[in-house]
From TrEMBL, chain A:
Gene name of this polypeptide: feoB_4
GO cellular component terms, A-Z: plasma membrane
Organism of this sequence: Sporotomaculum syntrophicum
Domain FeoB-type G: 25-187
Any one GO molecular-function label of the UniProt entry: GTP binding
Pfam families: FeoB_Cyto, FeoB_N
Domain of life, per lineage: Bacteria
Protein's name in the database: Ferrous iron transport protein B
TrEMBL record, chain B:
Pfam families registered for this protein in UniProt: FeoA (PF04023)
Keyword Iron (UniProt): yes
Native organism taxonomy: Bacteria, Bacillati, Bacillota, Clostridia, Eubacteriales
GO molecular function terms listed in the Swiss-Prot or TrEMBL record: transition metal ion binding
Protein name, per record: Ferrous iron transport protein A
Ferrous iron transporter FeoA-like domain mapped to chain residues: 5-77
PANTHER family associated with the record: FE(2+) TRANSPORT PROTEIN A
Stored InterPro entries: Fe-transptr_FeoA-like, FeoA, FeoA_core_dom, Transcriptional_repressor_C
Keywords noted in UniProt: Iron
Length: 262, 79
């Protein structure tokens, strides 16, 4: 049978997602709200013709493709469209688990330029898990038609991650997107994601619990994010972690968490 | 300030501002993720033939909510 992820631990977590790191240099995830043109961005990057359609829930499971940019091969994973990573629907879990446990080298969050506000919720949630994010403000052509102007420089400064405006249908902005993704994936650009600050009560609880969470999970997963999920009482996530990470290490998470809050 | 009602009690074509989401747990999370935070303006687009679910325009996306879920969002009608 060879080595399974159980026998090799977290080092081969990617194997669970059937994303072999051998045949590519970087793994890139593509996330976004439903109906923001994620699949169109996917096709524009990979040159594939994955079916695109204008209805929610079209990408039920992940689609994969790859492209070559400056002699590096990038494997692109098209995640299901979701409004959130926290409500525990099957689609959201697929997206969350991939970003969280497969630890892509960069995550592109596709947002709809015509209703940016509603899309930034997901962008911020992704940025809580990983800072290696590129925001792709898609459908910029449609926004222009509606006389909406997006200040990508300002948005980038406020969020602390690169932002690019695109119209994937016509290919506008795609070269710049590839450039930014490569910069983030190979760490030429250091992102500084601005963390979401919660109320003082929550921040106090995080301050008490996070060091203990970190002592258990180390750098295998973002400890602030995991602490927030434990404070949420998300027990399903703990089960999921046991599947993906080294089981022996994750077992004590709950008891320590509860004790830390007592 | 106009009276408080719930999202499911509004008639088609009317607007309202979200005052509070009284749902708890995952339903609350879901509603907040859909953009139903206090101060959000919502438009009632249409109802299905049976009157349930109801389609709303929430921050630029058309979202259908079942009556029992919509009933957990307190709003004040906006004229």
């Amino acid at each position: 049978m060879g080595l399974t992820y159980q026998s090799t631990g977290q080092s081969s977590t990617r194997e669970i997602f059937h994303t072999l790191a051998d045949d590519c240099d970087y793994v890139i995830a593509l996330a976004g709200n439903p109906n923001t043109g994620k699949s169109t961005v996917f096709n524009a990057l990979t040159g594939l013709r994955q079916h695109t359609g204008n209805w929610p829930g079209k990408t039920v499971q992940r689609a994969e493709g790859s492209y070559i940019y400056k002699s590096h091969r990038y494997r692109l994973i098209d995640l299901p469209g979701t409004y959130s990573l926290l409500s525990n629907s099957a689609d959201e879990e697929v997206a969350r688990d991939f970003i969280c446990f497969a630890r892509p080298d960069a995550t592109i969050v596709v947002v709809d330029a015509t209703c940016l506000e509603r899309n930034l919720n997901l962008a911020l949630q992704v940025m809580e898990i990983t800072g290696r994010v590129v925001i792709c403000v898609n459908l910029i052509d449609e926004a222009r038609r509606k006389k909406i102007r997006i200040d990508t420089d300002k948005l980038s400064k406020r969020l602390g991650v690169p932002v690019v405006a695109t119209a994937a249908r016509s290919g506008e902005g795609m070269p710049r997107l590839k450039e930014l993704v490569s910069d983030v994936a190979n760490k030429r650009v250091q992102t500084k994601p601005q963390p979401v600050r919660y109320s003082q009560d929550v921040e106090d609880a995080i301050a008490r619990l996070e060091p203990r969470v970190k002592a258990i999970v180390g750098n295998s997963i973002n400890s602030r994010w995991l602490t927030l999920r434990l404070l949420d009482g998300d027990t399903r996530l703990v089960q999921t972690m046991e599947n993906y990470l080294n089981a022996g290490k994750t077992v004590p998470v709950m008891p320590v968490g509860q004790e830390g809050l007592a | 300030m106009s009276a408080t009602t719930t999202l499911n009690c509004l008639s088609n074509g009317s607007f309202a501002l979200v005052k509070e989401v009284v749902a708890e747990g995952l339903t609350r999370r879901r509603l907040l993720d859909l953009g139903l935070v206090p101060g959000t303006k919502v438009e009632v687009i249409r109802r299905s033939p049976a009157g349930d679910p109801i389609a709303f325009n929430i921050r630029g996306a058309v979202i259908a909510l079942r009556r029992d879920v919509a009933g957990q969002v307190l709003v004040s009608p906006w004229k």
